[in-house]
Amino acid sequence: QQVAAGKVLVIRDPKDTSKLAALNPTCTHRGCTVSWNKDQSSFVCPCHGSKFNSDGKVVNGPADKPLPTYTAKLEGNTVLVKAG
Ligand code: FES
After folding, report:
1. Separation of CA 18 and ligand 1 centre (Å)
2. pTM attached to this predicted model
């Protein structure tokens, strides 16, 4: 389950599905938009194949910086995202 709103991508945390993980999906390599790949349990960039884990950390280059993450929680049917 994935909701894109502006520059924030929110997914259910694969390690704890009661939690949400939110991050900026702009690849830190050249700025393409990554998307969540369920089979690989990672964010994959379509441009040069960088991979990030659910915490935004780099698993595979060429990107070398993590994706910025946000704090997100579910309240009823509303996803609240806190910047920073
Ligand atoms: Fe994402 Fe190059 S822009 S890997």
Report:
1. 30
2. 0.82
